[in-house]
Write a structure and sequence with these properties.
By secondary structure, this protein is of the alpha/beta class. Helices cover 38% and strands 13% of the residues. It is built from 7 helices and 5 strands, in the order E-E-H-H-E-H-H-E-H-E-H-H. The protein has helices spanning 44-51, 71-79, 91-94, 97-110, 132-145, 159-167, 177-197; strands spanning 4-8, 28-31, 82-87, 118-127, 155-156. Strands 3-4-5 form a 3-stranded parallel sheet. A two-stranded parallel ribbon has the order 1-2. Strand 4 (118-127), helix 5 (132-145) and strand 5 (155-156) form a beta-alpha-beta unit. Helix 1 runs parallel beside helix 2 (71-79) and helix 6 crosses helix 7 (177-197).
Length: 206
């Protein structure tokens, strides 16, 4: 089942926009557009107001944000119940972990009135399995911040993901071997996210 279009995500920040969504089964996608580039911090409260209408309609709402700090990230952190942070295992990416944790604390204090975000952990992403340096970086970050803040699983850099994105379908629906392996990875990570949201212990990779 292909996702239905729900309009533009930038409309959440526009008080004059009419957002008409239904709670029909399946996926509803609010697409990104160039208007998001000019969203300011003062627009965040309008987004919070619009977002508060979502819970009766959907079981889950996934917010995908850019990897740089700004109004969009602040808005997402203001309304989110749970947070997953994909991170590449390159040296420069690891340098940003401390800043990420500070950003979460800032959003909790200034955007959520002290209400905590359930930080589900760092998710190693676009991982190069042939790189000894990236393997060591995974081990180092686990040693530094502990297994509770790092997923017991990762998403490797595979062609299957790019093919799935180009076709607009889940990666596990593709029949090529690279996509099937990617699908197994993705399903495991999604199960980890579900379990951490439910407070269940981490599972071993099989």
């Amino acid at each position: 089942m292909r996702p239905r279009a729900g309009g533009r995500s930038s409309d959440l920040f526009d008080p004059d926009a009419k957002i008409e969504l239904t709670g029909a089964p399946g996926l509803t996608v609010l697409e990104s557009d160039e208007t998001l580039d000019i969203v300011q911090l003062q627009d965040v409260q309008q987004m919070v107001k619009a977002f508060n209408a979502f819970p009766p309609l959907f079981d889950y709402c996934v917010i995908d944000t850019p990897p740089t700090w700004g109004a969009l990230n602040f808005a997402a952190l203001t309304v989110a119940d749970h947070l997953v942070a994909p991170i590449e295992m390159k040296d420069y990416a690891l340098d940003g972990v401390e800043q990420l944790l500070k950003t979460i604390q800032a959003a909790e204090q200034s955007g959520r009135g002290g209400r905590k975000i359930n930080f589900l952990g760092l998710l190693p992403s676009r991982f190069n399995s042939h790189s000894p340096r990236e393997k060591e970086n995974v081990a180092e970050i686990v040693r530094t911040i502990g297994t509770s803040m790092v997923f017991n699983g990762l998403l490797a850099q595979r062609d299957g993901y790019e093919e799935a994105v180009s076709q607009g379908v889940p990666v596990w629906t593709l029949k090529k071997r690279a996509a099937m392996v990617a699908g197994q990875e993705m399903r495991f990570v999604l199960s980890q996210i579900r379990d951490r949201m439910d407070g269940l212990p981490a599972k071993e990779i099989v």
